[in-house]
Predict the structure.
Amino acid sequence: MEASNPSIESLEQTANECRKSIIQMIHKAGAGHPGGSLSAIDILVALYGTQMNFDVNDRNSPTRDRFIMSKGHASPAVYSILHQHGFIQQSDLDGFRTLGSVCQGHVDMKWTNGVDFSAGSLGMGLSFGIGTALAARLDNRSYQTWVMLGDGETQEGQIWEAMMAANYHELNNLHVIVDRNRIQNDDFVNVQMEVGDLASKIKSFGWEVKEIDGHNMEEITEALQWSLNSTRPSAIVAHTVKGKGVSFMEDNPSFHGKAPNDTELIQALEELS
């Protein structure tokens, strides 16, 4: 699919449908990570809907853009958008986290159509992204590499080594999006180990940086286009709300990795409707 120009309203409607899918698949599995999936989904909807070049019938097309979900536990967000674009089926979502399903707890390129990076331990996705961006240059191809990081993930030293390397190699075909929802596995980021002013820190490594409201679809789409026009590696620091769209999950560390119960599912779907 070539990049298209859907309306803001259409993108927002798609994001809402994806939120419902995220909640439903995690509830059915009885496990998963709703908080970080809900904080990231607006960005993924805009990225796949307006910028990503892909061919749903040829997952290995050499000209496709690459998306790397480095915080791979946010797999429900990835699966929901892949389903929207026809890479996987509803039955795949229904099998989330079950033995043999293509939708495992962390995204895995060997299992899931449309996934370009197998995630597990945090901190590795940006280094992998540098590899794909360099490969594009070596192969004289114009595809773009997009990497999503969690803000808690930026506590990993490997992230900053990769930032330095990307600037050194002048990879303007590498684009990072930081899901700055301020909550990680155990608690708020500033309780575990505050990462401070991420935008300034990334900029100090020679990157071009833009801060946005990660739930404002207009700001997101404008920032994605800005990133494509960058002459250096670029990063979008998206300020988001963990659990966005579901009142009892918003800014609630306990829903980093907990499934809603039956009553909570009903409430969540009512709110999203």
About this structure: The chain has one domain: 8-272. The two ends are 29 Å apart (CA to CA). DSSP finds ten helices and five strands in the chain.
